[in-house]
Design a protein that fits this description.
Elements lengths: L3 E2 L6 E3 L4 E9 L6 H10 L4 E3 H8 L5 H7 L4 E2 L2 E2 L1 H8 L3 H28 L4 E5 L14 E6 L2 H10 L4 H9 L4 H7 L2 E4 L4 H16 L7
């Protein structure tokens, strides 16, 4: 169980009080243990932003009217009908781009509010839990990238235990950046294959390393 470190940390200066605060981007492919690792950061007292949860909130609030206007019939009872919206996106790349143009700015606003609120309470480190952090270029906006990883056979077993078929699993993998490439681009790699406590130790080592690292302004 080791925490891998690759050079290239960039510190972000938060406008609120010019407080230097490290922003860790947390990511990992399906079945790698990213959600559990995010909880370990939270257990350690680090504010964690959950991008998936933010999108869920938008689909029940601020994004509903714009999505209904763009895609009539994809909302119901004041919420986005995710199944209907998903069907609308199938085989229609322009529709997906339009949806992203609606949702992404709202997600960015929610993320910025989270960072500002964390800075206001004096947080020294925050975690942005973003599934497609590297695929979408989000690593350009964080100080360091933490990738959660596990051997391929462990990943496969975890996903299939959820009731996902082999075909569905392979289709999901085909749409994600290969794990080897994610690890190559990471500042830190957490191996989740040995259980909770070893992963917790790795998280603690990452936080200790970040806490002693002087900020480097962009």
């Amino acid at each position: 169980m080791t925490v891998e470190r690759v050079p290239s940390l960039i510190a972000i200066e938060i406008a609120s009080g010019n407080t230097p605060m490290f922003v860790l981007g947390l990511t990992g492919s399906i079945g790698m243990g990213k959600t559990t690792t995010a909880k370990l950061f939270a257990d350690a007292g680090v504010p964690v932003y959950d991008a998936d949860a933010a999108v869920h909130r938008l689909y029940e609030g601020d994004a509903v009217a714009a999505i209904e206007k763009a895609f009539p019939g994809t909302t119901r009872d004041g919420k986005v009908d995710r199944m209907a919206l998903g069907k609308r996106m199938v085989g229609d790349p322009p529709a997906l781009k339009l949806l992203e143009s609606i949702v992404h700015p709202l997600v960015a606003q929610a993320r910025q509010r989270f960072i500002e609120e964390a800075a206001a309470i004096g947080a020294k480190v925050v975690v942005l839990d973003i599934p497609l952090l590297l695929e979408t270029g989000g690593d350009a906006h964080v100080d360091a990238v933490v990738v959660v990883s596990a051997p391929a056979e462990v990943q496969r077993g975890r996903v299939l235990e959820r009731g996902v078929t082999v075909e569905q699993f392979e289709a999901l993998l085909s749409r994600q950046m290969p794990d080897a490439e994610k690890r190559r681009r990471a500042d830190y790699v957490v191996d989740s294959s040995q259980g909770i406590e070893p992963a917790r130790e790795q998280v603690a080592k990452i936080l200790a390393a970040v806490s002693t690292m002087p900020p480097k302004r962009k």
